[in-house]
Design goal:
This protein is mainly alpha-helical and 203 residues long. Helix 1 crosses helix 5. It contains 7 helices and 3 strands; from the N terminus they run E-H-E-E-H-H-H-H-H-H. 33% of the residues are buried. It has a 3-stranded mixed β-sheet, with no helix packed on it.
């Protein structure tokens, strides 16, 4: 068994678990609950991951792997011929570019949530996040036809999990009305067994 330090609320953990399900490895992963934050690091996690972040995967040989994209590529490689990480140069760069967009979206959504939880959040910072969110959604709307026309890969996982986290934490945003092509693509993403098996739980 592999051990995954995880949280059901983390979009980065969800991304790893989607890949684990796609690779047929989910049953080989023991999930170890962790609660980490900027103000309350989990000291028990630090020996495995000195960055104190989740997800952290500890394979059977005991060597800890981080961050999420490294874990995803490791799991994809264990499944046999890589499927989510293309091997052809051009396709790989395109998949990693899409993944970076989804991953970056997740990162600033988490930072936005942290800022909003402050007693007096900085309106300038929140306005900056709002501008970035609008730009990301516009870029993804333009890219949605290409997403639907290319084989499912790590870029799709990153983007899909970012949008699902937006739904999880900010259901009132209502981004679908202004982004119909992206909404249609995300609906197909949500139908995958690996996605509905890894729904966020606020617990």
């Amino acid at each position: 068994m592999m051990r995954l330090h995880w949280s059901s609320r983390s979009p980065f953990v969800r991304k790893v678990m989607v890949v684990a399900h796609e690779a047929g490895l989910a049953e080989r992963i023991e999930r170890v609950p962790r609660v980490v934050s900027l103000t309350a690091p989990d000291l028990d996690l630090l020996p495995a991951n000195p960055l104190g972040k989740i997800p952290t995967l500890v394979p059977e040989d005991g060597t800890a792997l981080y961050d999420s994209v490294v874990i995803c590529e490791y799991l994809d490689g264990l499944s046999g011929a890589p499927r989510l990480f293309p091997t052809a140069f051009g396709a790989r760069i395109e998949a990693l570019r899409r993944h970076a967009l989804g991953d970056g979206f997740m990162e600033f959504l988490l930072l936005q949530r942290t800022e909003m939880a402050r007693g007096q959040p900085d309106r300038r910072i929140l306005d900056g996040f709002a501008a970035k969110q609008a730009a990301v959604l516009a870029a993804l709307e333009a890219e949605a036809p290409a997403l639907g026309a290319t084989p499912f890969g790590i870029g799709h996982v990153g983007i899909g999990c970012a949008l699902s986290y937006l739904d999880f934490r900010w259901p009132q945003v209502g981004w679908r009305a202004a982004h119909p092509a992206l909404a249609a693509w995300h609906a197909t993403f949500r139908e995958r067994p690996s996605v509905w098996a890894t729904e966020h739980v606020d617990a």
